[in-house]
Specification:
With 214 residues, this protein is mainly α. It is built from seven helices and no strands.
């Protein structure tokens, strides 16, 4: 039943989601003030949980493609292992481009706070990547590190693009809707991945129990 609920009833789920979004448009600004204050302090726990879910997504992605490679029985390098390397390379390349653009648009002279945010994201990502591919983390994977690095880059950009100072934020007056879109995509992936894995594990466990019972 749990696996069916996770993977089915999509019409009802989409209807409930769209209905909630539409209903929120009719909520007054005064009613959202308490929510704003709670969200301001609870956002740290939300980001911590989200990064854990993305780590789970990265490991699941890596393990799934490794399983495909083992099932193919091919000794050629051009296969699923190469796809893992290419995916990690693309994510790291996108992060490097993001760091360069953030330094160019947000981290110019006179914006030391913005420079600090970008540098911390860059140095932290490189240090954690080094740890994940070393013997300190025997279960670390390059693809998972690439996922976390790209997410960290997005968080840094989102914080910088939300700053109200026009001198250090070229999007302060016009706004930037891309952060909202990317945030929704990341949230969907981080929530859907563990839910799908949990449903699949439960279904496999039920099949094993039925086979043992018969």
């Amino acid at each position: 039943v749990g696996a069916k609920a996770h993977r089915g009833f999509w019409f009802a789920k989409v209807f409930a989601l769209v209905g909630t979004l539409v209903a929120s448009l009719f909520v007054s600004n005064d009613a959202m003030v308490p929510y704003r204050e709670v969200a301001r302090y609870m956002s740290f726990f939300f980001l911590a949980v989200q990064i854990l879910l993305l780590v789970d997504f990265g490991y699941s992605w890596n393990e799934k493609w490794l399983a495909y490679d083992e099932e193919s029985d091919s000794d050629s390098f051009v296969g699923w292992r190469l796809a893992i390397v290419v995916s990690a390379f693309v994510l790291y390349a996108a992060s490097i481009v993001g760091w360069a653009l953030m330094y160019a648009h947000f981290g110019h002279g006179g914006c030391p706070a913005q420079q600090t945010v970008i540098s911390l994201a860059l140095i932290g990502s490189l240090l954690l990547t080094g740890v994940s591919i070393s013997r300190i983390a025997p279960h670390g994977t390059l693809l998972t590190s690439a996922v976390v690095t790209s997410y960290t880059t997005y968080l840094a950009y989102s914080a910088l693009a939300s700053h109200p100072d026009a001198a250090c934020n070229p999007f302060a007056e016009d706004g930037d809707a891309s952060t909202v879109v990317v945030g929704l995509v990341v949230a969907a992936i981080s929530v859907a991945s563990p839910a799908w894995n949990a449903a699949g594990s439960q279904a496999a466990l039920l099949r094993t129990s039925e086979a043992a019972g018969s």
